[in-house]
Design brief:
Blueprint: E1 5-8, H1 18-27, E2 32-38, H2 50-59, E3 63-69, H3 77-82, E4 87-91, H4 98-107, E5 111-116, E6 134-138, H5 153-166, E7 172-176, H6 184-190, E8 194-197, H7 199-202, H8 207-217
Parallel strand pairs: 1-8, 2-3, 3-4, 4-5, 5-6, 6-7, 7-8
The chain binds D-xylitol-5-phosphate (DX5) and zinc ion (ZN).
The site of D-xylitol-5-phosphate has 22 residues, from strand 2, strand 8 and helix 7.
């Protein structure tokens, strides 16, 4: 049986009621917290930074999966480890020395993730896949929640899965952007292990039940 990891994206939470929304996720069947950090340079939006993550960490009782959409992420690896990140994901497009960055993340005791923008070919990970704990395939252009899912993602998952198997790597696959009950099952069938969901969870009438439903749909 395949048990898919569900990672609600806090970007879609109500920031004026952040503790309440974190407690909802704590009490739910969700597995991780997905935390989007945007710098207004790598992506055309600014989300939130260290003080907010520090506040989230105090209450969050599940794995903290931090997605850095920032230039030069190497500068902040130690900082994010100190703020409670369990998984730190950097963008392939922001890392000219990706291998070094991955080693630095692991040296701080975190799992190392690499995110690929929709236009970035999975074949570019041929030489690093064995060093990567998780690949995050962006299924929207990063920067905003609530965008619609890019259909080409399914074939990227299949290509990535093929690469992981061929290289005998233990990398898991995360999908980020536009995930709903309409595409969740097909994503998992294609090979996804982790589904990030922002708006679909937090803007639902009943986020807890929505997570239960997502879990059910994706248990194959
Ligand atoms: C987009 C972020 C996503 C976003 C997902 O740049 O990386 O994690 O919060 O939100 P939804 O699920 O609403 O597309
Ligand atoms: Zn994200």
């Amino acid at each position: 049986m395949k048990n898919t990891i569900i990672a609600p994206s806090v970007l879609a939470a109500d920031f004026a009621n952040l503790q309440r929304d974190i407690e909802i996720i704590n009490a739910s069947e969700a597995d991780w917290f997905h935390i989007d950090i945007m710098d207004g340079v790598f992506v055309p939006n600014i989300s939130f930074g260290m003080p907010v993550l520090e506040a989230i960490s105090k209450h969050a009782k599940k794995t903290i999966d931090v997605h850095l959409m920032i230039v030069d992420p190497d500068r902040y690896i130690k900082t994010f480890a100190g703020l409670g990140a369990n998984i730190l994901t950097v963008h392939y497009e922001a890392c000219p020395h990706l291998h070094r960055t991955l080693q630095a993340i692991k040296a701080e005791g975190m799992k190392a993730g690499v995110a690929l923008n929709p236009h970035t070919n999975v074949a570019l990970l041929e030489d690093t896949i064995k060093d990567i704990d998780m690949v995050c395939l962006m299924s929207v252009n990063p920067g905003f929640g609530g965008q619609s899912f890019i259909e080409n993602t399914y074939s990227k998952i299949e290509k990535l899965k093929e690469l992981i198997i061929r290289k005998n790597a233990s990398t898991i696959i995360e999908i980020d952007g536009g995930v709903t009950d309409k595409n969740a099952k097909r994503l998992v069938q294609a090979g996804a292990d982790v589904l990030v969901a922002g708006n679909f969870v937090f803007k639902a009438d009943n986020p807890m039940q929505t997570i239960v439903d997502l879990k059910k749909i994706t248990t194959l």
